[in-house]
Write a structure and sequence with these properties.
Layout (H helix, E strand, L loop, with lengths): L8 H14 L17 E5 L2 H11 L3 E5 L14 H6 L5 E4 L5 H10 L4 E3 L47 H18 L4 H25 L7 E4 L5 H6 L3 E4 L11 H13 L4 E4 L6 H10 L2 E4 L15 H16 L3
Parallel strand pairs: 1-2, 1-3, 3-4, 5-6, 5-7, 7-8
Helix pairs in contact: 1-4, 2-5, 5-6, 6-10
Amino acid sequence: MNVRRLIPTAAVAGAVALGLTALSACSTSDAAEGGSDGTLDVVASFYPMQFLAEEIGGSHVSVTSLTKPGTEPHDLELSPKQIGGLSDADYILFLKGIQPAVDDAVAQAGVKNTVDAAKLTTLEDHGSEVDAHDHDHGEDEEHGEDHDHEGEEAGLDPHIWLDPVKYAEVAKGVGKSLEKADPDHAADYRKNTDTLVTELDELNTAYKTGLKDTATKTFITTHSAFGYLAERYGLVQEGIAGLDPEAEPSPARIDEIHTIAEKNNATTVFFETLASDKTAKTLAKDLGLKTGVLDPLEGITDKSAGADYIEVMKSNLAALQKALGAK
């Protein structure tokens, strides 16, 4: 997604060769460690995939993440050791279109049980960092068509995990793929999937109820990660920049945000924990607005308002209710 950090395929191929010759064990933030305890070695690309693998896999999987806590996933660069270690995994779970370095490395790894979460639901176009202000403003549009899943090339929004309904769709697909990869524990994977989907259904109900009646439907955020969430609950996301959290907004977009904030009675400019809050605070000061945190849940750190996906999503709901004037 962040084209500035895209790693050429040739470089990845070279790193694969290097990593394969190393044959060394990896840490918890590297690719898979040997499953000597009989568990399925699962490599997840970043936190939303890690959470699914851990919740559904339970005691039958050993999950490692390619993205260390606190690292901005869009900017991830993989070491030769991480890339080479991927080929030793029993199962890889990633989301194509958000981490170019991972996309390339996974393609080179050749692991049989490789699951792209983007293929387990339908991706939609909520704009791109190239044309940040031309994203969906909540109009009724048809999104049912079967998109190809070429992520950043097609301008599709990969932030599917921020919509509990879409995330539940992905969870069901992950559960089925784990059953296929490890049929001996299929019953447990089904049970764990059902439990997680129930939690996500409850989260969806909480959002639907909590955001049904608000003073305004518009929220402003530095990172346009909340397109699916906004569409699901009848809100309007106004991103200062685009899908790239580090992108600098144009002067024209800043002027446009000023107009939008005044017209729609926006109260808050949201920023996230893994990227700079400078733009949000400057804009909020200029507009006389408050600032707040809306976490895109790309990683859990000690700054996160919760210990896991469910807790942070509940915190996001509370932040939105306050900012939007929920009644």
